[in-house]
Amino acid sequence: MSKLSKLKPIVRLSVVNPNTDSNSVFGRGIASLCIGVRDTGSLNAAAKSMGMAYSKAWRIIKDTEAALDVQLLYRDGAHGSRLTEDCEQILAAYQAIEEQLQAQAEDSFEKQVDGQ
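-> structure tokens emitted (116 positions)
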């Protein structure tokens, strides 16, 4: 077994709005925040679970919403937050594509390092 066979590629997917000059994208970090909101019902709780300040999480959400021109969260003050339908769709597509690409990358990497 080759030393290289223990290595693994990591795929990083981003969803962007090509009609904006913003650097904000829907990527792994925002996906994790959204999953946290879905699981906890709170942006604050999601941020804390990631070791992030609520103010930073709020800024990331707002920047991404502005860049994508899509509302990601419904916010209800002290009652928490929940994902919008658009966010649920983006998140589901993001997770499915990332999983698919990751499997393909691992398979391709394995073939390449094995010399096939």
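The longest strand covers residues 73-75.
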